[in-house]
Amino acid sequence: MIEIDNYKIKTLLFDISKKFILPKYKNLSNNDIMFKNKNDLVTVVDINVEEELNKKLLNIIPNSYFIGEEKFSKTPEIINQYNEKNYCWTVDPIDGTKNYINGKEKFVIMISLTYFKNILQTWIYNPLTEDLVSSRMNYGSYFNDKKLIITNTKNINDSIGSISSKYWDNDKYEKIIKLKNSFKKISSYGCIGLEYVDIARNIRDFLVLSKLYPWDHLPGILIVREAGGFDSYFTERSYNHCSDEQNLIVTGNYQLGKKILNKLME
Ligand SMILES: [Mg+2]
Question: Helix H segments across the chain?
Answer without folding.
Answer: 6-16, 22-24, 44-60, 69-74, 97-101, 170-180, 192-200, 214-227, 254-265
